[in-house]
Design goal:
Immunoglobulin-like; globular; 117 residues; 4-stranded mixed beta sheet; mainly beta
Length: 117
């Protein structure tokens, strides 16, 4: 099925519409940018997937969520420097035939993730 994400803004109780996200492959010493996007009104990639089933490979990846810029765009007063700037989630794909869903629950001061379905 591929790789997907969904971001929920726990401070406002809404999807994180407008948050910038980048996906990297981390198989080599220098991470390779695979995709950059802005989350839609549901806090998801506009086309639903970050990578489709044919593009998802065994290996390691990094999702980078631009948390501070998102909360500043929502007029949240953050200290300088902010407690969270970018949240980097490194994860591995062992079986690319399965669906990998990487959700993020985030506020300006905390985040949580898990392997979703």
């Amino acid at each position: 099925m591929g790789l997907s994400t969904h971001v929920l803004d726990t401070m406002h109780g809404t999807p994180a519409a407008g948050m910038q996200v980048a996906l990297y492959s981390t198989l080599t010493q220098s991470p390779t940018l695979l995709k950059q996007l802005v989350l839609n009104q549901d806090g998801r990639p506009g086309d639903g997937l970050l990578l489709d089933a044919d593009s998802l490979q065994i290996g390691t990846y990094r999702l980078v969520f631009d948390v501070a810029a998102y909360f500043r765009s929502r007029a949240v007063a953050l200290p300088e420097p902010s407690f969270l700037d970018q949240v980097n989630l490194d994860f591995g794909v062992a079986d690319p035939s399965r669906h990998y869903h990487v959700p993020l629950l985030v506020s300006p001061w905390s985040y949580s993730t898990y392997r979703g379905s």
